[in-house]
Amino acid sequence: MRPLALLGGTFDPIHNGHLRAAWEAAEQLAAEVHLLPANVPPHRPQPVLDADQRVVLLRLALAGQERLRLDTRELDRAGPSYTVDTLLELRAEHGPRRPVVLLLGVDAFAGLPSWSRWLQLFDLAHIAVLARPGHARDYAPALQEQCARRGCSVDGDWRDRAAGNVLFVDVSELDISATAIRRQLARGQEPRFLLPDAVLAEIQARRWYA
Ligand code: ATP
Predict the structure, then answer these.
(1) Is 157:172 a contact under the CB 8 Å cutoff?
(2) Total domains present in the chain
(3) Which atom belonging to ligand 1 lies closest to the Cα atom of 38?
(4) Whole-prediction pTM value?
(5) Tens of pLDDT, residues 45-103
(6) Is the CB of 179 within 6 Å of ligand 1?
(7) Residue 191 falls inside a structural domain
(8) What angle do CA 196, 174, 3 make, to 5 degrees?
């Protein structure tokens, strides 16, 4: 069964770092990749763009290809979503056997022990850690322990299981962040080639992040 891989994030805005990492993960894992924009809980710093605006940019970014798809389920729910609840829902939809892979940049992976019911994530999905420049693989002991127990190479036998492994995926390291893009736009600079042309054109036409 073709693995289903998921990349969650605020995507404020979507950029080539997300897109290229997701694309290479899709290739290396032979997976279908879904991008899941998040509703941000009220007590966390809010995205600059609201959910509808971020979705407009995601749709522009994903146009013209089939390998990366948009899944807005977390936005369609009223409140913020915990990843574990999203995975429970997806697991119910896809059945107990399909390999599901949660894609996380190294920075997001390092924060995993603070997530709600984080150990339950391994019952529901594999976790694939995507290389990202400027972020060391410096994990809390509890996370290191999970890596030691669950580590599997990309070419290993993780596809035989629906969940439970940790994979490290060597994607091209692009030093691109949404924060840096927002900063450039706020200063009146043009972050061309850091994100798709159609996404930049829409941001400029609507004067977002200015
Ligand atoms: P911000 O700068 O606003 O924090 P971001 O660029 O980190 O945003 P997010 O939407 O927070 O983007 O990231 C979603 C997911 O994509 C996270 O797992 C993050 O680690 C990963 N990611 C973001 N940028 C890259 C990149 N350049 N390379 C690899 N993974 C990335």
Answers:
(1) no
(2) 1
(3) 10
(4) 0.96
(5) 899 999 999 999 999 999 999 999 999 999 998 887 899 999 999 999 999 999 999 99
(6) yes
(7) no
(8) 80
